[in-house]
Design brief:
It is built from 4 helices and 2 strands. By secondary structure, it is mostly helical. The protein has a two-stranded antiparallel sheet.
Length: 114
């Protein structure tokens, strides 16, 4: 497992940022609705989002349309801010590519724990 000096792994940072963005943009009721729809329609539990990130991103866009796309971009920005990094830029980079870029950069900065 790869963790930061603060003890958080990338998956925990991802989950925290997803939740913060949903709560900030949609409020508690809206975020609960999104989590419930992801669970019922796409079989994605909140805790499983890091392992099903492609399904999560597809489901969010299916549920919210262009609003889902905007939320995905905000998630990347929140993660980059949380990790004290610059968000990956580029029109050709989608959500998943930006997330992979941040994850790889994070792994280079942290201490492996065995």
């Amino acid at each position: 497992m790869i963790v930061s000096r603060e003890g958080l792994g990338f998956d925990e940072v991802l989950l925290d940022c997803v939740n913060n963005v949903l709560m900030d943009i949609l409020g508690e009721v809206g975020a609960s609705f999104v989590y419930r729809r992801l669970r019922c329609r796409y079989n994605i539990e909140r805790e499983a989002i890091p392992g099903k990130i492609e399904d999560f991103s597809r489901g969010l866009v299916d549920l919210l349309g262009s609003g889902g796309e905007a939320i995905l971009h905000l998630i990347v920005d929140y993660i980059a801010d949380e990790l004290h990094m610059t968000p990956p830029k580029g029109r050709r980079l989608g959500f998943l590519e930006k997330l992979r870029t941040l994850s790889k950069a994070w792994e280079r900065q942290v201490i492996p724990v065995f």
